[in-house]
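Late entry, written up from scratch paper. The run itself happened at the end of the previous shift, but nothing got recorded in the book at the time, so transcribing now.
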Amino acid sequence: MKVVRKLLFWLIVVPVLAVLALQLYFFAQIGWWVDHNPGSTSFMRHQESVLQEKNPAIRLQYTWVPYERISNNLKRAIIASEDSHFSEHEGVDWDALQKAYEKNNRKGKPVAGGSTITQQLAKNLFLSGQRSYLRKSQELVIAYMIEFWMDKERIFEIYLNVVEWGSGVFGAEAASRHYFGVAAANLSASQAAKLAVMLPNPRFYDKNRGSNYLAARTGTILHRMGAAELP
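Output as recorded:
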């Protein structure tokens, strides 16, 4: 009986405590970021290590800028393209998740995420780019933690500064200079729309900037930007 109790302890209690400890770490770290800017994210560090396997001298393009120094054009474009209900939901858009779940069932594998801006931030801060339902579940938990600690403007500010925009390119300032040679504060509406459309597959569009889909989708987002509600 004593052996059984020990076995149950190691098989059940220890893993549960480890998971709880991890959640507490996430919760405390997010609380710290309410007033402190992240120097990097899990996703940034992973991508840098991948790039350095080919070229050890390579460094990420990344410069933090405050919310007010990022063009409202870019903010509206991203909300229009990525998460039109950003200002309304509490971190998770369950309707979008349901649609993604149905699409994944049709394809027989995870191909769509239905992620909000908050969920994307959760993934970038702590998780990998791997598609799985286990990772998605953790993403949802972290998204609610982020919404607990932060207001929408702070969430959006961090997102705009850490999201990937190309091979080794992270954040609005680096992306604006990488693609257009201007500061993030000076992006035009069309430039902002193009950057927003690149987000789901930034490394691909970094190499395929003349894509017909990119041009067509940019026009669509330009027409939607006026209705985007900023936090």
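The mean pLDDT is 90.
(Scratch paper discarded after transcription.)
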